[in-house]
Specification:
Length: 831
């Protein structure tokens, strides 16, 4: 992991190293680099770029010498390992260089500092000059490889590391050496590339193998040769964050590249997320048993604006321009009472309802927390935020975004904000990198275009309904119980037992009032803990995805043409609770051309006091539906009726052909793949592979009875999850560390070898673009793995409401699978 660069004589590099000249040479301080989880256990390595030169006086008696914390270490060589500090959060070290008088440096001489755990993996002490190698040294090939890699002799370095890998008895040590060989090969390739697309591809490869120094150089070249390519600018900013850190004000020099990417992404067909900063100069808060007024200064206000501008650039570029940030800053001089943290009433009227997704109560204090949509003033999301760093600001705001995406049931595979630390290439340099890696790789442009927190009512509500009910549930469905996992599971089973297609009670016409169907008014004798079905038929002149604003008390599930499209995770709460609300959540439906049957199941529950005000709420039970496009405007040609249209037949759902699954071109579906691809079930995978006992753990290991014949062709087959395994096998290692990007299951179809490849979101672009097409694949007529996508698969996870997601590719890999997943990638074609 890069830990900084020092160029003696270049003042811009001196500050971070506290560089100073001494009577006999120079001194500098290396501060071990922090990542998202403080400073990892590591060993510092100094690599020199350039040479020591001798003037015409003659050869020095002694070479330059290096000392660490005042203790002599060794002569300065091309690669020097400092004494290891394996403690948690190792401390800075002071490095001294004793330079003989007649020794000079070549122009542009640089000390490059890295942090590594190589010694840990190799099971050996690594201290001092790696160029000092004896013939009997067990790590001779490894040390020769390092010297050659950093000395520019990369073909030799690759061979040396390959030899070192063959000699390693430890699996992690062998893998390390193979990874270093790939780094050397990539450096060789760098010198042969002449195009922006070639450098971009090499940058992608470097990110996968963890060569962040090379990734930064490659993406920088890509931006120079393709200055209008927004992906190149975004990845350059990411790579720079990995190389140099993006913590705190380190982001100041990186954010312009995210902004460059954001400005280059197309603005057409994009959505907006509106954030209102109420900058309170005087805010009364409760502090222990007393109250006090806290103040914001002009400097603090400028800090907020600068940091949030960075966050806005990051989000607009992470979404590939599909989500645009609309920010409003309002400085408020008069004193406001915030002694009740989550009471939105004192701030009512500051914003206009329907204009703001997120209301940020900005203070000069350090506290920060967030509640989701409709908890804040005038139906906004609500954030308490003090003066914090950019990534904390992004963290709190991201809660409101993921609440909307996940609760609206758009966010298939999207982890919750507190679980995004495992997003991105590991180890992530900051919490913020985890967040916007989630936003980049797990959220899709299609999700961004639909998500919304609030909007003015601009289109007609669906007002033609037939309803069936009531179906009495139980008399204790209360708000606290609906957030109890076991209770909710039992409740969902009861709701599921009701047949929405063949209800036991007849349908009757229902009236709407201001778009709301009041079920309680229709059946006043029933208690609140009841369920009912509502049905209408919607005509669409073409196949299309539309935004659907839903309101319900207190829960709803939806089927479109017999397929469940909204499973009802959200139960009404906060300002939605007990008030016959409309337009609570913005979901999406995919209408078929012609008539579509739309069915809702609406469930009520007992309602108690309002959680914010303590006022007793009267019971409500009902729903509303409004359809619009992504700009909240009318969708041309839509109409609806409550009775079944003449000649109506239910549109058929396209089933997965298990004998020959339909393949999709990734380029055609990537923008909105969770809407455009089949969501493959475990039963689908079992049928495709003809492995009836196939299972998947949540971390993700595919366990099955693989025949001896097929097993022999696998590099490895795990019988269960193994957090230490990073081979190419039947596990996509989703443990915290180490991480993998793909897994494979080998199977046979029509007597021919095939492979299902499961790819993690961070690996989609690189693996689909750079995987070599094997001879076996070519014999099956496969020309490109990116054209062999058959769907996506998810496994259940509590930290990812809609499951952990992976892309599924049906192809054929080499008969003898490589040991490492990275060996599937080829950089030979990059030019």
């Amino acid at each position: 992991m890069p830990n900084g660069e020092l160029e003696p004589g270049n003042v811009a590099t001196h500050k971070n190293f506290e560089y100073a000249k001494t009577p006999t040479g120079e001194r500098f301080v290396i501060k071990p680099r922090r990542t998202r989880f403080d400073t990892p256990r590591q060993q510092l390595v100094i690599v020199q770029r350039g040479k020591w030169l001798v003037d015409d006086i003659g050869k020095p008696k002694t070479p330059p010498m290096i000392s660490v914390n005042g203790k002599p270490l060794c002569p300065v060589g091309p690669v020097v390992f400092l004494p290891a500090d394996w403690s948690e959060n190792p401390k800075p070290v002071t490095v001294g260089i004793e330079i003989p008088k007649n020794v000079m440096r070549s122009p542009g001489f640089v000390y490059r500092v890295f942090a590594t755990d190589d010694a840990d993996k190799l099971g050996a002490d690594l201290i001092g000059d790696m160029g000092n190698v004896s013939p009997s040294d067990s790590l001779k090939s490894y040390k020769q490889g390092l010297a050659a890699l950093f000395g520019g002799q990369t073909p030799f370095a690759s061979k040396a590391f390959a030899a070192a890998a063959a000699k390693q008895k430890r699996l992690d040590g062998a893998r390390l050496c193979r990874q270093l060989a790939r780094w050397a090969d990539a450096e060789t390739t760098y010198g042969k590339i002449r195009t922006g697309s070639g450098f971009y591809g090499l940058g992608q490869y470097a990110m996968v193998i963890g060569a962040y120094d090379l990734a930064e150089r490659s993406f920088k070249k890509a931006t120079e040769l393709q200055p209008a390519d927004p992906d190149a600018w975004y990845m350059y900013a990411d790579a720079l964050s990995y190389k140099t850190s993006d913590l705190d004000y380190e982001m100041e020099r990186i954010a312009p590249f995210y902004r460059k990417a954001a400005d280059l992404y197309p603005r057409a067909n994009s959505n907006t997320f509106r954030t209102f900063f109420a900058l309170f100069r005087n805010l009364k808060i409760k502090d222990g048993n007393s109250t006090r007024v806290i103040h914001m200064t002009d400097e603090q206000i400028e800090h907020v604006k600068k940091n949030w501008d960075w966050c806005s650039a990051i989000m607009e570029s992470a979404s590939k321009g599909a989500l645009r940030m609309v920010n409003t800053y309002k400085v408020i001089d008069e004193e406001y009472d915030s002694t009740s943290d989550w009471d939105p009433r004192p701030f009512k009227g500051i914003i206009e309802p329907g204009t703001t997704e997120t209301f940020i109560k900005m203070t000069g204090w350090g506290a920060s927390d967030c509640c989701g949509m409709d908890t804040g003033p005038d139906r906004s999301a609500f954030i308490n935020l003090g003066i914090r760093e950019w990534d904390v600001m992004l963290h709190e705001w991201n809660h409101s975004l993921d609440w909307a995406i996940i609760t609206d049931e758009l966010g298939i595979g999207v982890p919750e904000t507190h679980s995004s630390d495992w997003c991105g290439f590991q180890p992530i340099p900051s919490m913020g990198m985890g967040h916007h890696s989630c936003n980049r790789y797990y959220m899709t442009p299609g999700m961004y275009r639909i998500v919304r927190g609030t909007d003015p009512v601009t289109t007609a509500y669906v007002d033609a309904w037939q309803v069936s009910g009531p179906y009495i549930l139980r008399d204790d469905v209360t708000e606290p119980k609906t957030i109890d996992e076991a209770y909710t599971k039992d409740l969902v089973q009861k709701l599921s037992s009701l047949d929405y297609q063949h209800p036991t009670k007849p349908f009757a016409k229902a009236e709407t009032t201001n778009g709301y169907v009041d079920l309680k008014a229709l059946w006043p004798e029933s208690n609140q803990n009841s369920s009912a079905f509502a049905r209408t038929y919607i005509y669409s002149p073409k196949e299309q995805r539309v935004r659907m604003w839903l309101g319900f008390d207190s829960n709803a599930r939806i089927w479109l043409n017999g397929k469940m499209v909204y499973k009802g995770l959200y139960w009404s709460c906060c300002q939605f609770y007990g008030l016959k609300m409309v337009d609570q959540v913005a979901a999406a439906i995919d209408l078929k051309k012609g008539w579509n049957m739309f069915t809702m199941q609406v469930t009520g529950r007992q309602q108690g006091p309002d959680w914010q005000t303590g006022e007793q709420l009267s019971g409500t039970w009902g729903f509303s539906v409004r359809l619009c496009d992504i700009q909240n405007q009318e969708v041309p040609g839509l109409k609806w009726q409550s009775t079944e249209p003449a000649g109506f037949s239910m549109p058929k759902q396209e089933a997965v052909n298990h004998r020959a699954p339909k393949t999709y071109r990734w380029a055609d579906v990537a923008d909105d793949y969770t809407a455009l691809l089949p969501h493959l079930t475990l039963e689908d995978l079992r049928a495709i592979t003809n492995m009836p006992k196939l299972n998947a753990t949540n971390d993700v290991c595919f366990t099955c009875n693989i025949s001896a014949k097929l097993g022999a062709q696998q590099a490895s087959t795990l019988s269960g999850p193994d957090p230490t395994s990073v081979k190419l096998d039947n596990q996509l290692n989703w443990f915290f560390s180490p991480k993998e990007l793909c897994a494979t299951i080998r199977y046979q179809r029509d007597g021919k070898q095939r492979d299902l490849i499961f790819i993690k979101p961070e690996g989609y672009e690189t693996y689909l673009k750079m995987m070599t097409v094997s001879a076996e694949a070519k014999r099956l007529g496969i020309k490109n793995h990116a054209d062999q996508v058959i769907g996506y698969f998810t496994v259940a996870r509590s930290d990812s409401t809609h499951g952990r997601i992976m892309l599924v590719v049906d192809t054929s890999l080499p008969k003898s699978l490589p040991f490492d997943e990275e060996d599937l990638l080829s950089i030979r074609g990059l030019r």
